[in-house]
Write a structure and sequence with these properties.
about 850 residues; alpha/beta; 6-stranded parallel β-sheet; 5-stranded parallel β-sheet; 25 helices; disordered C terminus
């Protein structure tokens, strides 16, 4: 019997519309004439989902008693007996009631497929076995029901039912997913915007991996060797050398340029194990690759270039990153083009990036102006050309010459002298001229086979050889010197541009300048020392005192110390430019630090001005009322009635109490701003603190609705400060709650964090103004001076952060504002009871 086909609808979370999509597809297939039945569907009371099921044949459920409770399950036997063409089976990860034919619904589905029945089913990403721990870290919720990855991957078709996270939250808030009593808790916990975004990415990436695996299987089955670059895949070649870190970071940046880019690092080792590499360096580079989200691979091959390209093709790579060869030019000339050129030749349609690094053979250094214009290597090559070229020219002339070809013989040797002069300069040219003159006289001028010069003209010819050689070599020498001067000027310009760019970038200018100076001047070590003796930057070997050169930087601000080489006058001039740029970089650093200090002072001054304004304005009213009341009592004496006396005393008492609260708030906000708020963290019962805050505000069941989690563990908090936070937040919520509505207080846990949510259904606050309400002395346009100094929320956030938590505003579904107090759960890693600290 032919096995049935499996189609899986994958969602990021409940409520995205998987079941609705499944039923809609069932209706479409039924309308096309296919035999479709509903084996099991869970509508969860959603009206729109239930409406989609109407008109489709439904297999009645089987009632199962478990521990005295009647439960409904899919009637597996009835579905098999009915044997439809297509069965709709909801919730693939469902665990069947004990006593059922199979423990898991996915096993039921496997048997239906084996019976030749096509199945359309649904599953959420959190139920996939390999993602279970990742989802727990994201949401803090442990999923007990899971499906093996192999079951989902074996599906003939996997389709993501996608929905934007905010749209899902809107759907939830509108009551389209859960009943009203579960909405707030769901929005506050599992259905946070960040959670949904992470789950959505997880679902899409999981499906992308599955699609990529399917593509790889297709290419293998059809023998397709060329790369199909449907996804950006960057392979970095590691040799075990110190340049690997640079290559890895460059590859990571390339991979990050496109969504879904993948980074792979590979090291090629030889089959005989003789190819040297540093295991410790490779281990460090492997850790770096994995920290950047990539994967590390090791392959074996005698030809590194071929093995590298074969690996890149096997993983369908689109980019290949290799380093510039660490060999010098002479080694490259003797041993061939190297691995880089071979990789480029074999890569085909794979892009190859050759990245320069500090260990490359052509490391940046300024060309030297001192010394001979031509290098030692060129002079040696000149002597070699003279020694090899002389015999070659002689053999050719002897085999083709005649008695009348003396002119041709002379010109041939003259050409050899010019070639040697062009290669090696003056001394090889003089050597070639003397050697060719003697050879010409010995082999071609009578008397033959002697070096006797019988004719003075022959002596003049020899002298002319030498003169011509010297003139040509002088021209070559001048051209070489001018070329070196031009290269030196270009290198100096490049260095100055790089130095200036480093200063403009600012952040790492000083270390970059020190490193560039050491490389440019070929020094062993460079160190920049501040005036107080601290080392600001260093590069290369430790600076030794015996060969140290010191240069002042920035009027004694620092000292640049160099060792390992002698500098000529031109290099000293260029070094002065580096020193000047170092001084500018240090000055820029000082200015940045000064600006930061000025910013802090400006903020402090702003708070001070606000404090003075508060003292002059908000404190004056209760102080004046208290003084007037006490003055009236003193002036009237015994002439006041008992009612008047009591009213004056109550006014004075109320004014002094208000004054006390205002002064306390001023002192508290000053401590928060100064960073010296004393905090005593202890395991704290959130419910107890909530009740104390309600007692302080004299709020009862008519004012506040409580939804406290009885299983919520203790918080790591300062109970006094937490009470102040809740009192301030509750006061604001109560002030803006419409008549007839109640403020709602809910507690919940999310991973290692506990939340206390204060929910009102007032006018709310626009998103762009939410941060303003946490500023000191801010009432968001209130004109009621009896509302206090506007310090309540500023103090509350400061207190919450001082306890290691947060205070954040959110929209209330249906309108209003929700203030969320999040604090860590007290546990094994929490501070011991009574531990005190001060906020930094």
């Amino acid at each position: 019997m032919k096995r049935g086909r499996l189609r899986v609808l994958l969602g990021m979370a409940p409520g995205v519309g998987k079941t609705y999509e499944m039923l809609e597809e069932g209706r479409r297939l039924r309308d096309e004439g296919h035999d479709v039945v509903i084996a099991i569907v869970e509508t969860h009371g959603r009206v729109a989902t239930a409406a989609q099921a109407e008109g489709l044949e439904v297999i009645p459920r089987r009632a199962v008693a478990h521990r005295g409770v009647a439960l409904d399950e899919m009637d597996f036997d009835a579905v098999l007996e009915r044997h439809p063409r297509i069965a709709l089976v909801d919730e693939l990860a469902h665990t069947n009631v004990p006593g059922s034919r199979n423990d898991k619904r996915w096993i039921d589905v496997e048997e239906l497929l084996d019976a030749g029945i096509d199945v359309i089913t649904t599953v959420n990403v959190q139920h996939i076995e390999s993602l279970n721990d990742v989802v727990e870290k994201i949401t803090g919720v442990v999923q007990r029901e899971t499906v093996p990855d192999a079951v989902v991957r074996s599906a003939d078709q996997i389709e993501v039912v996608d929905l934007a996270p905010q749209s899902l939250r809107d759907r939830l808030a509108a009551g389209s997913v859960y009943p009203a009593e579960r909405i707030d808790a769901a929005l506050s916990n599992y259905f946070r915007l960040g959670n949904l975004t992470a789950l959505r990415e997880l679902a899409l990436l999981w499906l992308a991996d599955e699609v990529d695996s399917a593509l790889q299987r297709y290419r293998t089955e059809h023998g397709i060797e060329g790369s199909w670059q449907a996804r950006e895949r960057v392979v970095v070649a590691l040799t075990g050398g110190p340049e690997g870190e640079t290559l890895i970071r460059r590859g990571a940046r390339i991979a990050a340029r496109s969504a879904g880019g993948e980074l792979l690092a590979v090291h090629v080792s030889s089959q005989d194990g003789l190819r040297t590499s540093a295991p410790a360096t490779l281990a460090e580079q492997r850790a770096l690759v994995e920290s950047l989200g990539g994967s590390y691979h090791q392959v074996v091959g005698d030809d590194p270039a071929t093995a590298l390209v074969d690996f890149a093709r096997s993983v369908n790579a689109s980019q290949l990153v290799i380093g510039v060869s660490r060999r010098g030019r002479l080694a490259a000339a003797l041993t061939g083009p190297g691995i880089g050129a071979t990789v480029i030749r074999l890569s085909g349609d794979i892009d190859v990036h050759i990245v320069s690094h500090a260990r490359a053979g052509g490391r940046f250094a300024l060309p030297r102006l001192a010394g001979p214009a031509l290098s030692v290597k060129r002079r040696i090559l000149g002597f070699v050309a003279a020694l090899v070229g002389g015999p070659v020219v002689s053999l050719l002339l002897l085999s083709t010459g005649s008695d009348d070809s003396i002119t041709t013989d002379v010109l041939a040797y003259q050409l050899l002298v010019v070639i040697v002069a062009l290669i090696g300069g003056i001394w090889p040219a003089v050597f070639a001229a003397v050697l060719s003159g003697v050879t010409l006289d010995f082999l071609f001028i009578q008397p033959l086979y002697t070096v006797t010069i019988s004719n003075p003209v022959h002596a003049i010819a020899l002298v002319l050889y030498v003169v011509i050689a010297m003139l040509v070599s002088i021209v070559v020498d001048q051209a070489a010197r001018r070329d070196r001067t031009a290269r030196r000027a270009g290198a100096e310009a490049e260095m100055i541009a790089t130095v200036a760019g480093s200063v403009l970038r600012g952040e790492s200018a000083v270390p970059a300048l020190v490193s560039r100076a050491r490389e440019a001047f070929g020094l062993a070590g460079v160190r920049l020392i501040a005036a107080d003796g601290s080392v600001l930057a260093t590069d290369g070997e430790p600076v030794r005192d015996d060969r140290r050169v010191s240069l002042p930087v920035g009027d004694g601000r620092a000292t640049l110390e160099l060792h390992g080489g002698d500098l000529d006058a031109s290099e000293r001039r260029l070094l002065d430019v580096v020193v000047a740029q170092l001084a500018a970089a240090l000055e820029r650093t000082d200015l940045a630090e000064t600006a930061a200090e000025v910013g802090a002072l400006a903020e402090t001054d702003q708070v001070r001005s606000a404090l003075l304004s508060a003292v002059s304005h908000d404190l004056r009213r209760p102080l004046a009322a208290a003084v007037a009341s006490l003055g009236g009592l003193r002036a009237a004496g015994d002439h006041l009635s008992e009612d008047d006396r009591r009213e004056l005393l109550e006014t004075a008492d109320e004014s002094l109490a208000t004054l006390s609260v205002l002064v306390t708030d001023l002192l508290d906000v000053s401590r928060v701003q100064a960073g010296v708020l004393a905090v005593s963290l202890t395991p704290t019962d959130a419910a107890g603190v909530v009740l104390m805050a309600l007692d302080e505000l004299d709020l009862g069941p008519d004012d506040v609705e409580l939804a406290l989690d009885p299983d919520l563990p203790s918080l790591s908090a300062d109970p006094v400060l937490l009470q102040r936070v809740l009192v301030n937040v509750l006061t604001n919520a109560q002030r803006y709650t419409p008549e007839g509505e109640r403020v709602r207080i809910a507690t919940s846990r999310l991973g290692g964090t506990a939340e206390i949510r204060v929910i009102d259904h007032g006018p709310g606050i626009a998103a762009e103004r939410r941060e303003d309400m946490f500023s000191p002395f801010q009432r968001l346009g209130d004109t009621d001076n009896t509302a206090g100094l506007g310090l309540g929320l500023a103090l509350s956030r400061g207190f919450a952060e001082g306890m290691g938590g947060t205070l954040t505003p959110e929209d209330t579904p249906g309108g209003g504002l929700t203030m969320v107090v999040a604090l860590p759960v007290a546990g094994a890693d929490a501070m011991a009871s009574g531990t005190s600290r001060r906020t930094p």
